[in-house]
């Protein structure tokens, strides 16, 4: 698979507070790639750095250190052409779609920005690819269901023919009944060769659509590899913990839930150190990154 995007030792530190400045390490040296026509999921609990990663790839935030390469080029040295190749879908279409505009105008906007022609045909085609017919052109977002609104947001992302879509929690604001349809749509786009970086905390969504999955915890990438093996035989103790909390399909599958883990201290080399039941003394000072079973895992157990 051809590599589309490479993220190399990416770090982001936010400086917060007005009178006493404090540093928040949102990301610490994370590295991964997205292949062409691939769906890569990034999972992790709230605050783990998922959105920050997506924002840097979308150039909405600048990295503190590390690099980004899109088809071998630095996005921060590219002009507007980058926004043709990478587009975004956010969590809440109610917030991301302008309520005053009609669907046709919303989807047309990126074409206007890039000075494109044949706009009507292209808007109709984008809507169709997102699963909506021409009857939606004149509608306003408020008259649509949550699922339809998210399809409009996806049509807007598609209309400029991007190579990569960064989708940040695209199903989290939707009712259960709409979620599967939106996920299916990313699978369909994959068949058309479009890559997706799927940011989510929903492991069921990941299981359904992602080719590979990366697990973020407190700004560090603890494990990344093919979704199937990662979910079936998680290597990192944190991935194991995360999967053990996954909702089961049937009560007969219910396992003992792990005990609530103690509070953590951030100063150890491994961010999971104080919660980890398998920790070793050396995990305080250093964590090795190893390749096991087609995966990269940052853990001294391997
Ligand atoms: N603009 C910002 N200013 C300061 N801190 C931020 C900012 N954006 C994110 N953070 C912090 O960075 C960390 C990661 O946040 P985020 O990437 O939004 O996580 P996630 O999407 O996984 O919930 C959190 O501690 C968050 O509070
Ligand atoms: Mg987020």
Tell me the layout of helices and strands.
Blueprint: E1 3-16, E2 22-35, E3 39-43, H1 50-57, E4 65-70, H2 81-85, E5 86-89, H3 93-96, H4 103-113, H5 119-129, H6 146-158, E6 164-168, H7 176-191, E7 195-200, H8 203-209, E8 212-217, E9 220-226, H9 227-232, H10 237-244, E10 289-292, E11 295-298
Bound molecules: adenosine-5'-diphosphate and magnesium ion.
Residues 14, 16, 24, 26, 44, 46-52 line the site of adenosine-5'-diphosphate (ADP).
Describe the structure.
The chain has 302 residues and is of the alpha/beta class. It has ten helices and eleven strands. It folds into two domains: 36-63 and 76-210, P-loop containing nucleotide triphosphate hydrolases (Rossmann fold, 3-Layer(aba) Sandwich); 224-245 and 266-302, no CATH class. The protein has helices spanning 50-57, 81-85, 93-96, 103-113, 119-129, 146-158, 176-191, 203-209, 227-232, 237-244; strands at 3-16, 22-35, 39-43, 65-70, 86-89, 164-168, 195-200, 212-217, 220-226, 289-292, 295-298. The strands form two sheets. It has an eight-stranded mixed beta sheet, with helices on both faces. It has a three-stranded antiparallel beta sheet with strand order 2-1-4, covered by helices on one side. Helix 4 (103-113) packs across helix 5 (119-129), helix 5 packs across helix 6 (146-158) and helix 6 packs parallel to helix 7 (176-191). The radius of gyration is 20 Å and the shape is globular. The two termini are 27 Å apart. Mean pLDDT is 92; it is low at 256-262. The structure holds adenosine-5'-diphosphate and magnesium ion (MG). Adenosine-5'-diphosphate is lined by residues 14, 16, 24, 26, 44, 46-52.
